[in-house]
Write a structure and sequence with these properties.
With 896 residues, the chain is an alpha+beta fold. 15% of the residues lie in helices and 31% in strands. The longest helix is centred in the middle third of the chain and has 22 residues.
């Protein structure tokens, strides 16, 4: 997952557009599709045209995007591409001429968003804002889309990994398939005894998937099919094999061919695996899909220090090309932008135009940790937002464990409820895989032909490949017709496998492509005979902005009525019951353990999993827990020493490894970005004795790089475990759904009393065996009279952004000054927070304030009526003094 972290200012941030669907798929009455069109409404009374708003730094000139008012939403970006291009360019011609005449440069004309990007002076910005055709002028921000080249320091090279002495159990006659994720999501297995693999039904044939950086890998042998045809279409050079490692990973996840055999010992030189023990091939979950470069008709990325960047206008121009030129069916966007209120409206609008045109957009949630860190544009309700789970075979093989357990939420996966009240849609594997690469490429390892690949950058393209499989399966069974993006999303989420994690981490659950393609073949209009239809499914849809989840805001202690439509894919009627599932408050079990940290003997080699940093810890897990969260903290004032822990369960299986993306440092004058905290989540933990190993390692498990060099910290670490149980209650009355029919089910949502976010899920269970988990984003508002609220800050992984917590409260007309006071006890420099106050009705950010000495105050004079929003954002580090940090807030009662 690539993320941009941009500097925040009080005056330069505008409230994120809350997008709304222009195409909705309703499953009632036989899954009829209803489409709406945005129609400009003309006023009959002439009025002065106000100057267009200029957002943030755009007022200073430089790289900006000038939006026009007429967005031509009545012209489909894909099926009426030339008409939309012509209409946009006709609007833009005078604007382009004007910009050039006044010294503007670097012009780019956009279509999905009718806008012109250019570099211009501040005077030109002020002049253009008076043009009655201009809607707004926004900064053309730079976005990080690629990683730094991999380098091996001399210090690291001097401490190579030691062989584990463990010979993994591999079939020497048959290579393993990478990533392990393919079997986990029921896409493909080379084991003939593994049933129910989606690729026996659909392989993405005939579907076009667009992804960044694809043009530069067209010549890699993993992307030439056995018949000699190319996976990449429209490539400028079919010998090219020199793009960024992330793009190789994306392409491999979708459409690698499995034709090149690699040796793990050679491809993972620091793993300690014996040469010739295990081999592998690379395969995608939609190997017959075609790939096209989102950026193919766009400017190349620029290199800035150790990152690859694109401007937002470049990204949008790439979307334009993918949809209008190559008629892509799927857009895979495994990058995102650091969370903060209000930004990237242009990218949101481009994605929405693509969805309205029938293109499914898949976006990674981010790699910043499980609580309150979902990035833009994943928070757009029209896209498919994807988080990540673990697959641990590779680590188990290389660390010396005989067995492992998959499918827990991986610690890096961004989760939580977004400021616009959305949770992830589903999860897919995003840890410990291998992908194609080339030593000559921009950031591939210099010593191997593959790259260790993971994060939600892996989860996102795996889901994009699943979309391709679903489209093919639907077309094959519906006379070539394609399903709408909303229906595809509902199919994937409704057939996902519940992992037992909270709804704001897993969404509907773990991607199950086999169940999804089978469900797609059973929907209304199918040509598949009823005698050949597999196990039934329940396809759920809602009337929320995101039709695959419920998004509810209400007063504490009330019940908010909601309706869910359920479609029974079976030919026979079935009885459906529903339960609401949330979690109890976390409660510590066992004692907090303190251990001393020390560096190992520098003369000894460092093991692949990292050198021991402290004594291992055993702890007993009681029976009946639904969720366990082990946590570790250490008070390192330099924020520069990376530590993690590895968990094994009572059966000795590798179960979790904590994760840290912080930058190490031993210089107090230049502290690092290590957050001094680690935590993992485990669903349904087995009762009995567990073991935690504390190591000098960041948990990234990149076995093509030397293990982390032990740091210099010599203090203590504290380790504890907390557990939770399920809170389960009936969610609706039982309902009988006839075969091949829909029923509307009333689902009352109980709102907890405490202000803030309280995710839950509704579990629908049919007597025919179908199961669907529907995520619910519950946001309890602060009372209109004002009062206290509290944010629980659980930490960060040192990447992208820290946790953001959102609170809302209604303001009535005529209220006096609005004041919000905030306080946190730990006011050290490495516990930085920023607070934001946002106007209602998609208005701009009103004010923001950094915490000083643990305090912050937000004040607005004469606020307008509506639902106002408070956002509290943690910076990248914590002091390591507490496991959780509390921020107390109060909305001061209105003056009389």
């Amino acid at each position: 997952m690539r993320k941009a972290v941009l500097q925040e200012t009080t005056t330069s941030i505008r409230r994120r557009r809350r997008t709304r669907a222009v195409s909705v798929v309703a499953l009632a009455a036989g899954l009829a599709t209803a489409a709406g069109t945005l129609v400009p409404v003309a006023s009959s009374v002439a009025a002065p045209v106000p100057s267009a708003p200029v957002v943030g730094t755009a007022q200073d000139g430089g790289a900006v995007i000038v939006w026009l008012k007429d967005q031509h939403a009545d012209l489909n970006l894909r099926t009426q591409s030339q008409q939309r291009i012509d209409a946009a360019h006709e609007d833009q011609n005078s604007l382009v001429a004007d910009i050039k005449a006044h010294g503007g440069t670097d012009l780019t004309q956009l279509v999905s968003v009718n806008a012109v990007a250019a570099t211009m002076s501040a005077d030109e910005v002020q002049r253009l804002r008076t043009d009655p055709a201009v809607k707004q002028i926004v900064p053309d921000s730079e976005v990080t889309v690629g990683e730094a080249p991999l380098t091996v320091s001399a210090a690291a090279a001097s401490t190579p990994a030691v062989a584990s002495g463990h010979s993994p159990k591999c079939d020497t006659k048959q290579p393993q398939v990478e990533p392990e994720a393919l079997t986990d999501i029921h896409a493909y297995s080379n084991d003939p005894h593994t049933p129910d693999m989606a690729n026996s039904i659909a392989t993405g044939k005939g579907v076009v998937v667009a992804n960044d950086g694809i043009d530069g890998l067209a010549g890699n042998p993993n992307f030439t099919r056995p018949d000699g045809s190319h996976v990449v279409i429209g490539a400028s050079d079919y010998t090219a094999d020199d793009t960024d490692e992330e793009y190789y990973g994306d392409a491999s996840s979708i459409a690698a061919q499995g034709t090149v055999v690699y040796d793990y010992a050679q491809e993972l030189p620091y793993s300690g695996m014996p040469v010739g023990t295990c081999t592998f091939v690379l395969r995608g979950d939609a190997p017959d899909a075609s790939l096209v470069d989102i950026n193919h008709n766009d400017h190349p990325e620029s290199t800035s220090g150790d990152v690859l960047t694109e401007s937002e206008s470049q990204i949008v121009a790439g979307i334009d090309a993918a949809v209008t030129v190559y008629h892509a069916d799927v857009l895979s966007e495994s990058y995102g932008y650091g969370l903060r209120p209000g930004n990237y409206a242009t990218h949101y609008a481009a994605n929405d135009a693509a969805v309205a045109a029938g293109v499914t957009v898949v976006v990674s949630s981010g790699d910043s940790g499980v609580q309150g860190t979902v990035s833009s544009p994943a928070s757009d309700p029209l896209v498919i937002e994807v988080g990540a789970t673990n697959t641990l075979r590779l680590e188990a093989q290389n660390y010396g464990y005989d067995s492992w357990a998959n499918d827990d939420i991986t610690p890096l996966s961004s989760g939580g409820t977004t400021p616009n009240n959305k949770v992830p849609d589903l999860v897919a594997p995003g840890y410990s895989g291998q992908a194609a690469c080339n030593p000559a490429a921009s950031s591939c390892p210099s010593n191997t032909h593959t790259v260790a690949f993971g994060g939600t950058s892996q989860s996102c393209p795996l889901v994009a490949g699943a979309v391709a499989d679903v489209i093919q399966a639907y077309r094959d069974s519906h006379n070539g017709a394609s399903p709408a993006p909303a229906l595809i999303k509902q199919i994937l989420t409704s057939t996902a496998s519940d992992t037992g994690a909270p709804a704001d981490q897993q969404g509907a659950g773990l991607l199950n492509i086999d169940a999804a393609v089978k469900a797609a073949r059973q929907l209304p209009g199918t040509t598949v005979p009823s005698s050949r239809r597999p196990a039934p499914s329940l396809i759920a849809s809602t009337s929320s902005a995101d039709t695959s989840q419920l998004e509810v805001v209400g007063d504490g202690g009330t019940t908010v009525g909601q309706t869910v439509n359920l479609y029974n894919t079976s030919t026979k009627p079935t009885l459906v019951t529903a339960t609401a599932r949330a979690f109890t408050e976390p409660k510590q079990f066992g004692a907090t353990v303190t251990e001393n940290v020390s560096a190992p003997d520098p003369a000894k080699p460092v093991p692949a999993k990292g050198a021991d940093a402290a004594k291992g810890i055993d702890f007993i897990v009681p029976s009946g827990l639904a969720r366990m969260t082990p946590e570790m903290i250490w008070p390192d004032p330099t924020n520069g020493n990376v530590l993690s822990f590895i968990l094994t369960d009572p059966r000795g299986r590798l179960r979790q490894q904590s994760y840290d993306y912080g930058t190490a440092s031993s210089n107090p004058a230049r502290p690092g970005t290590v957050p001094n905290s680690q935590r993992v989540e485990i669903a349904h933990p087995e009762p009995g004795r567990w073991h935690a190993e504390i190591v000098w390692a960041n948990g990234r498990a990149h076995l093509q790089e030397p293990p982390n060099v032990p740091g210099t910290y010599s203090g203590t670490v504290q380790f504890r475990t907390v557990g939770q149980h399920y809170q389960i209650a009936p969610a609706s009355h039982p309902v009988i759904i006839p075969g091949h029919s829909s029923r509307a089910v009333s689902v009352p949502i109980a709102m907890p009393r405490d202000p803030g976010d309280h995710p839950e899920s509704v579990q629908f269970l049919a007597t025919n065996g179908a199961v669907t988990s529907l995520p619910v984003a519950r946001r309890t508002s602060i009372p209109a009279a004002g009062g206290p609220f509290q944010a629980d800050i659980v930490g960060t992984v040192g990447r992208g952004t820290g946790q953001i917590s959102t609170f809302v409260f209604p303001v009535s007309a005529g209220r006096g000054d609005l004041t919000v006071n905030l306080h946190t006890a730990d006011s050290s420099a490495d516990n930085g927070f920023t607070a934001y106050l946002v106007r209602p009705s998609d208005g701009p950010l009103q004010t923001s304030a950094a915490f000083v000495n643990g305090n912050a105050t937000l004040t607005v004079a004469n606020p307008g009526p509506g639902l106002w929003e408070i956002d509290i954002k943690l910076n990248l580090t914590t002091s390591g003094q507490e496991f959780h940090q509390v921020v107390d807030g109060e909305v001061v009662p209105a003056s009389t």
